[in-house]
From TrEMBL:
Organism: Streptomyces orinoci (Streptoverticillium orinoci)
InterPro entries named in the record: ABATE (IPR010852), ABATE_dom_sf (IPR023286), Znf_CGNR (IPR021005)
Protein name stated in the entry: ABATE domain-containing protein
Domain Zinc finger CGNR: 149-190
Entry-linked Pfam families: ABATE, zf-CGNR
UniProt xrefs under SUPFAM superfamilies: Jann2411-like
Highest taxon of source: Bacteria
PANTHER family hit by this protein: BLL6575 PROTEIN
């Protein structure tokens, strides 16, 4: 994805969606969770996946950004290390453990009008609850045998990660990065084919 992309990539495993909120741009990496408003937008895009952590109707505040950013940084450090075949940094694993422990999931009983139901609930401020859910998602990803299939988009300059359902998938979003790669390849062929051999 290019620096002009401002809409977060969603639809991957939640921890990958979190990492994909820092796309590469012309001037380095952008942060699509830089403000409380951007975090609120991302929560809307995630829908039901984060409803348990954000479902009390509380709007994100500036203070909620730090724990979410910390989990993103720890997740990225662990994921990138494992993708290189290296040991994840102990500080990254420790940070994810602390985030999960700061708002543990507690079952809570409710009466829904016809039956007793049980719903997991996490205590604390919105940012702490979100960080715990995101850290749990990172833990799920890091321990999943499918992790070895996680790929980085092959488009030039793109840092988006995805877990392909099909082994031949090469781009984060075929309609964006895939098209850009095909157009670039076409222009390279045109350029290389039009060169006259020197005499």
């Amino acid at each position: 994805m290019t620096g002009e992309d401002t809409e977060p990539l969603v639809g991957e495993q939640l921890a990958l969606d979190l990492l994909n909120t820092r796309p590469a741009g012309l001037e380095g990496r952008k942060d699509l969770l830089a403000t409380a408003q951007l975090l609120a937008r991302w929560l809307d895009l995630q829908g039901a996946r984060l409803a348990g952590a954000a479902g009390d109707g509380t709007a994100p505040q500036r203070a909620d950004l730090a724990p979410v950013h910390a989990v993103r940084d720890h997740t990225e450090a662990a994921v990138r290390a494992l993708m290189r075949g290296a040991r994840p940094p102990a500080s990254a694993l420790r940070g994810l453990n602390q985030a999960m422990g700061a708002a543990p999931s507690v079952p809570e009983l409710h009466w829904d009008g016809t039956a007793v139901t049980i719903t997991p609930r996490r205590p604390g401020r919105l940012g702490i609850r979100l960080a715990a859910v995101l850290a749990q998602s990172a833990a799920d990803l890091l321990t999943d045998p499918a992790f070895e299939r996680v790929k980085e988009c092959e488009a030039d300059g793109c840092v988006m990660l995805f877990l392909p359902a099909h082994p031949r998938r090469r781009w984060c979003v075929s309609a964006k990065c895939g098209n850009r790669a095909r157009v670039a390849r076409h222009y390279r062929r045109q350029r290389d084919g039009s060169r006259e051999p020197s005499l």
